[in-house]
Specification:
Length: 270
């Protein structure tokens, strides 16, 4: 089956994120983000240009189309997905990449979408903050797990139990695939509609977006043990003051904010 590649000229990082969400609803199932370009991919038999035009025209965006023959698909991914290296801490690669040397932990991720592979700044930043936390024997809640990458890293850092959840069927399927590829043993994957949980956790990871964090902050706080950590991301630098203020209203202490390309990840403690 041939694949359609849609190349969209877009510079605004937040708009890229919104486009990925909207195009995913149209059955686009893979994305590559470049400096001022978003490439979106969809199987030719389900492509509807009228629906694409509706989304792009309302944002006044230009695009071009090309057809990728089925036999060239793997070659395309290999050319577009370079391994991601977070300092000397974590290396993220696909199966077709060579083993990454010189990092403490290596994670295999099927690169079906650009977010959740470590390429996006927010995932990169959360992994940096995770390095500052003692996960050994601890319980972890990964709210909005996506590909499962953060849950997998939590286990590699010694977590005793990890509950990873998402509300998207594709994410559930892909995260299950990735925890199997990484021989993960302590991760449970559940489909949920919100962050409400009957359990208490030592560490909670929520790499989502501002609106979902604000809607679920009470559930997240209720799920924290005393002397626990909360990492929030999927946030822009302009969100920091409001989110920190919101968390302080729930008696959470702001420990550190990491920044990259206009995005942030925030570490808080209870």
């Amino acid at each position: 089956m041939d694949t359609i590649e849609v190349s969209i000229q877009v510079q605004n990082e937040l708009l890229k994120e919104l486009l990925i969400a909207e195009l995913s609803n149209l059955q686009f199932d893979a994305f590559v983000e470049e400096d001022a370009l978003l490439k979106a991919y969809i199987k030719a038999d389900v492509f509807n240009e009228t629906e694409l035009n509706f989304i792009l025209n309302k944002n006044d965006l230009n695009y071009s189309l090309s057809i990728i023959k089925d036999q060239n698909w793997n070659q395309l991914w290999e050319s577009n997905f370079a391994p991601v290296i977070v300092d000397d801490f974590v290396g993220v690669r696909a199966e077709f990449h060579e083993k990454i040397e010189g990092v403490v932990h290596e994670i295999l991720i099927t690169p079906k979408m650009s977010f959740g592979t470590g390429h996006h700044a927010t995932t990169f930043l959360v992994m940096q903050l995770m390095r500052k936390i003692d996960f050994k024997g601890k319980s972890v809640y990964d709210f909005g797990t996506g590909t499962g990458i953060l849950a997998i890293l939590a286990e590699k850092l010694g977590a005793g139990k990890v509950l990873a959840v998402d509300n998207d069927d594709w994410c559930i399927e892909n995260s299950l695939e990735n925890i199997q590829k990484n021989n993960s043993q302590v991760i449970e994957i559940h489909k949920v509609e919100d962050a409400k949980s009957n359990f208490k956790f030592d560490t909670i990871l929520a790499n989502i977006n501002r609106n979902i964090i604000e809607d679920n902050i009470s559930y997240l706080v209720d799920s924290l043990k005393n002397n626990s950590q909360l990492i929030l991301s999927g946030l822009l630098e302009s969100d920091e003051a409001a989110i920190v203020r919101l968390c302080e209203n729930y008696q959470l202490k702001h420990i550190k904010t990491e920044k990259k390309n206009g995005w942030i990840a925030i570490l808080l403690e209870r």
